[in-house]
Amino acid sequence: MEIGFKNHRQNTAVPELDRQRIPHHVAIIMDGNGRWAQKRHLPRIAGHKRGMEVVKEITKAASHLGIKVLTLYAFSTENWKRPDAEVNYLMDLPVKFFSTFVPELIENNVRVNVMGYTDQLPVSTQQAVNDAIAQTAHCTGMVLNFALNYGGRAEIVTGVQQIAREVQAGKVTPDAITEETLSAHLMTASLAPDTDPDVLIRTSGEERISNFLLWQLAYSELVFTDVYWPDYTSEELVQNIVAFQQRHRRFGGLDDGKDEK
Ligand code: IPE
Ligand code: IPE
Ligand code: MG
């Protein structure tokens, strides 16, 4: 069955979702929680709370669509700059999230993965995350990959440090370092062969990367939507994937199969 939408008013067909061309790896910068709350004269954390419920809906929707990896930017290495009360609330969200949602993750065969500097998180957050990873380790469907205390530049620095140590130990020569070497030393390495997102979606109208997956986004399609994350829906996700499917990815060459010899 095609999931799609028609613009009845103008009676012109809007492109429908092509179920044969679902992106393997979808990454989302979930933005706009604070503005969603402020618009309603609520404290910012009310937006984060609602945002957490949306994560549950979108996880299930993405899994049903057949997406293989859903990477969600939950907390950046720069988000520590926020007021303590907000940071504390955000740090407690994974505890709340997994305490209620793990059974549904298992029902949907979704495996949890986390990337980021998790050793800097409160012990209770680490515990919640590690428990969820362990409890879903047997799941073979979609990978729900949370970026938690993640930063793209820091990730690259850490990867380069690891490679430098291998050079120092005589395990690899500088000339042998390739793009694959660096990829294999990034926090997405375990997602292979789907380390790089096919599409990056950012909500809330902001059109920037904010230190997310700098290396991996090299050839991702970027889709921006004005919707604040707490208002994001599975219909909007489908629409954003349709937008992705309308793009022509060329990777520097010409259109698929038309490369001149
Ligand atoms: C995204 O929403 C959630 C996190 C960054 C943790 P924001 O909290 O950034 O919301 P805005 O951008 O201030 O509206
Ligand atoms: C990016 O959003 C980080 C997350 C969604 C976790 P921010 O709200 O922190 O990004 P900026 O500050 O607008 O660039
Ligand atoms: Mg923001």
Per-chain topology:
Elements: E1 6-7, E2 12-13, E3 25-29, H1 33-39, H2 44-65, E4 69-76, H3 84-107, E5 111-115, H4 123-135, E6 143-150, H5 152-168, H6 179-184, E7 199-202, E8 221-224, H7 234-245
Parallel strand pairs: 3-4, 3-7, 4-6, 5-6, 7-8
Antiparallel strand pairs: 1-2
Q: Report the uncertain regions.
A: none
Mean pLDDT, to the nearest integer, reads: 94
- Strand-residue proportion: 5-15%
Read across the widest sheet, the strand sequence of neighbours is 5-6-4-3-7-8
Radius of gyration: 19 Å
Name the features.
7 helices, 261 residues, alpha/beta, binds 3-methylbut-3-enyl trihydrogen diphosphate, 6-stranded parallel β-sheet, binds magnesium ion, 15% strand
Give a nutshell description of this structure.
With 261 residues, this protein is an alpha/beta fold. The chain has helices at 33-39, 44-65, 84-107, 123-135, 152-168, 179-184, 234-245, and strands spanning 6-7, 12-13, 25-29, 69-76, 111-115, 143-150, 199-202, 221-224.
Would you kindly provide a written description of the structure presented here, covering whatever features stand out?
- The chain is of the alpha/beta class.
- It has a domain at 78-135.
- 39% of the residues lie in helices and 15% in strands.
- Strand 1 and strand 2 form a beta hairpin.
- The longest helix has 24 residues, at 84-107.
- The chain is globular and about 60 Å long.
- The model has no long low-confidence stretch (mean pLDDT 94).
- The structure holds 3-methylbut-3-enyl trihydrogen diphosphate (2 copies) and magnesium ion.
